[in-house]
Amino acid sequence: MQYIIPVGLVTAMGLLAGGILTIADKFMAVKMDETAAKVLAALPGANCGACGFAGCADYANALAQDEEHAVKANLCTPGGDAVAMEVSSILGVEFEGSSSMIAIMKCSGSRDKTSYAMDYQGRQTCKANKLFFRGRGTCEKACLGFGDCVNVCAYDAIKLENGLAVINKYKCVGCGLCARTCPNALIEIVPDKTRVVVGCSSVDPGKVTREICSIGCIACKICEKSCKFDAIHVVDNHAVIDYTKCTNCTLCAKKCPTGVIHVFPKLAGAAQPKPQPVLAETAQAEASARQV
Questions:
Q1: What pLDDT digit, counting tens, does each position of 112-158 carry?
Q2: Bridge partners of 196?
Q3: Are 80 and 128 part of one and the same domain?
C-alpha cells in the first residue's frame, strides 16, 4: 500500500502534464503556410544550406512570404532543374534553370602515395585529428581520412578508398556540406561541366612534396606555361585552376610530370539523373503532417 499512493500520484501528474501539453500544442502551434508546405514537399530535404538559408523549411518559408519574388526559386542546387521547375510552378513564377554544381577533391594522397607522421589513437574524426599537431599526415594539407565528409553526405557520393575521400561526380549534387565539413578545405564546389581537377593542395616547396608524396604538385609551373587560356597558375606551391577560364582542353593534365592533374571521363549518352537523398521522404512526410 505504501507504494501504491506515490505511484498513483506520479501517474496522475504525468497524465495531467501530458493533457496540458496536448492542449497547448493544439492552441499555440504555429501553422505552416500552405504554399510553404507545398514548396517544402517539393524540396529534396537535405537541409544542406546551399540555397543560403538554414535549411529547406527556412527556404520554403522565405519563398512563400516573398510577395515581390526577390528570392529565386532555383537556389536549390541538389534539386536541380526538376525542383526549380516544380517550385516555380507552385509559386506561379517564370522558371529559371538552376546552376548544377559538383564537389571536387583537391588531394590525391592515398595510403600508397603518402604516409602518416604518427599513429593517432584519439577521436576518429578529421576535425579532432586536425587539432592534434595539425593532423596525422606527413603533408599538412593532406586528406585526414576519417570520413567526416562521408558522414555528412546524404547522397552516398563520397567513399573512403585507401585512406582518401573519393567523390563520385555522377552522384554528387553540389550541396556543399562536405566542403564546409573538411577541416583542411580540400573540397571545392565547381560547375558540373568541370572535367579537369588538380588533386593537390600542398603548400610545401616542391622538394619537400617529392619526399612525402609521390603524386603531389611540385610547383614546376609546366601546366601554367602550357595553358593557352591563362586558366591555371601555381599559388602557394600548388596549381590552382580558374574554372571561369578553363575550357577542359586537358593539356595541363597531359603535361603534368607527377600526374596530379586528373581528368574526368566524358559521359556516354545522356547525363544520369541526380540522386535523391535519404532525407527526402522524411521531409515530405513532415510537410504533409503540417498541412493536416
A1: 999 999 889 999 999 999 998 888 999 999 999 999 999 999 899 99
A2: 263
A3: no
